[in-house]
Amino acid sequence: MTGPAAAVTLVGVAAPPFHLAFPVRDVESTRAFYHGLLGCPVGREAELWIDFDLFGHQLSAHVAGEDVLATNAVDGDDVPVRHFGCVLTMERWHALVARLETAQVRFLIAPKVRFRGEVGEQATFFLRDPSGNCLEFKAFADPGRLFAR
CA-CA distance, 55 to 79, in Å (whole number)? Predict the structure, then answer.
């Protein structure tokens, strides 16, 4: 993991960390997933929220009610419309896949290469946190193609 204020560089340009607040059922299962399983350092926290360092980005998990998720068909998968995650280096992506497979995590969409042979070719997988939030982690063999059309 990187430090909480670290800039992210994938396509030759350093970008500031993003901040994302999202709903969760409870703090403890959220801590177990993001800190215990994914290895994200814990930041500030209170009774109804907790912050994590997700590969240098700030996630703020806030206890909230139910939230319905829609899906769209993408390259043969039903991809959750509302999802978030990180674009990692291929090395970090493979290391995270190995960590999750060792922990026998059930993937929502198993690790695979999507758009094979196309400009947007990418390694990707999806999983749900204990509150039902969908996360996608992806990597590009050529990071310069992150925004290519």
Answer: 22
